[in-house]
Amino acid sequence: MVLFLLLVLIAVILGIVGVAANGLGYLLAIGVAVLVAALALVAVRWSRRSGRPLR
């Protein structure tokens, strides 16, 4: 969970800097890519948990 929150925080910071600074639109694209990677990571972890049988 810590890794997910860290990735989301980095994505938000890169997105804000990319929008605020002229000519740094690539930071916005990197921020979006990091956000997508974070969401994919969480989706993989949640799918692994749901497949376990209950005891």
What characteristics describe this protein?
mainly alpha, about 80% helix, elongated
Account of the 3D structure:
The protein is mainly α. Helix content is 82%, strand content 0%. It has 2 helices and no strands. 7% of the residues are buried.
User: Using DSSP, what is the number of strands?
Assistant: 0
- How much of the sequence lies in strands comes to under 5%
The percentage helix is: over 70%
Report Rg: 15 Å
In the predicted model, the low-confidence regions spanning at least 5 consecutive residues are none
Helix-strand pattern, N to C?
A: HH
C-alpha geometry: elongated
- The pLDDT mean sits at 82
Structure classification: mainly alpha
Beginning-to-end CA distance, first to last residue: 24 Å
> How is the biggest beta sheet arranged?
none
Please tally the helical runs, counting DSSP H or I stretches of 4 or more residues.
Answer: 2
Give the topology.
Elements: H1 2-20, H2 25-50
Helix pairs in contact: 1-2
Question: What's the short story on this structure?
Answer:
82% of the residues lie in helices and 0% in strands.
